[in-house]
Amino acid sequence: MPAKKLIIFPFNGNGIEALDCIDPGAFEFIGFIDDNFSGKQPSAGNWLVSGRDLLEKHPDALVLAVPGGPSSYLKRKEYIQSLSIEESRFATIIHPSVARGLNAGIGKNCLIMAGVVITSNARIGDHVCILPNSVIHHDSVVGDYSLIGSGVGIAGGTTVGKNCYIGSGSNLIHGISIGEYSLVGLGSNVIKNFPAHSRIAGNPAKDIPLKNFTTHG
Predict the structure, then answer these.
(1) Cα–Cα distance between 29 and 23 in angstroms, integer?
(2) How far apart are alpha carbons 192 and 90 in whole angstroms?
(3) Which of 58, 95, 137, 138 is catalytic?
(4) Among residues 12, 60, 72, 170, which is most buried (max CB within 10 A)?
(5) What is the DSSP secondary structure assignment for residue 3, as one 8-state letter?
């Protein structure tokens, strides 16, 4: 079977790291699309960085959309939907080193990076990005549009709501729930439930006023 053409949106850290996850036998990387492409082409080297017209030039190409970070994660859904493409065009890219347990589910337009472990019955929603060496344990749920940093541990039966950001090095105890649109800061240890729109940090993690919250990580 010939390799499927692939476009990545945008040209950012997640997009660059996605290149390491692509199976060259399955996908032919065409280039990045970015709304500020003219200023980014010099740093892209031999990789093409183009405007959204690349989607029309390659109507058969699949798309991996991985926008957002700790300061812009709340707009991930908006950015992805702004592409205005059919759901069938979204690709899911999984690094070959990922360990996927029995009945573990992974949605569309997901990027799962090297060393990630997703164990039995865990559910990863659509438009989720999981950075290297994180572990999603049994029966846990990661909601749509969420970003999971590197080295994160999400224990069994825990639910991360949609459009959350879980900072690198954080650990979430078993059986808890993190409400949608919440941010967990770098290296936090979360041992209780938090409602939607929380800003969480510390050991043990607490809800932090936004003016005192750092988004790094």
Answers:
(1) 10
(2) 35
(3) 138
(4) 170
(5) P
How far is it, in rounded angstroms, from Cα 7 to Cα 49? 10
Boundaries of every domain in the chain: 4-89, 93-204
pLDDT, tens digit (0-9, with 9 covering 90-100), for 90-125: 999 999 999 999 999 999 999 999 999 999 999 999
pTM attached to this predicted model: 0.94
Dist CA 25 CA 103 (whole Å)? 25
Q: How many residues does the chain have?
A: 217
What residue has token string 């990863």?
124
Closest Cα partner for 73 from 149, 171, 152?
149
**Token pair of 104, please?**
């573990």
Among candidates 32, 73, 65, which has minimal Cα distance to 161? 73
> Which residues, at least 6 apart from 1, have a Cβ–Cβ distance to it below 8 Å?
none
Please determine whether the domains at 4-89 and 93-204 fall in the same fold group of CATH.
Answer: no
4-89: CATH topology is: Rossmann fold (3.40.50)
pLDDT digits (tens, 9 = 90+) for 189-211: 999 999 999 999 999 999 987 65
d(CA 107, CA 71): 24
Q: Is 58 a catalytic residue?
A: no
* Calpha distance 69→77 (Å, rounded): 12
Closest to 198 (Cα-Cα) out of 67, 142, 206: 206
Q: Tokens 């992974």 identify what position?
A: 106
Q: What is the mean pLDDT of the chain?
A: 94
Residue with more model confidence, 19 or 217: 19
Tokens 């959350």 sit at which residue? 164
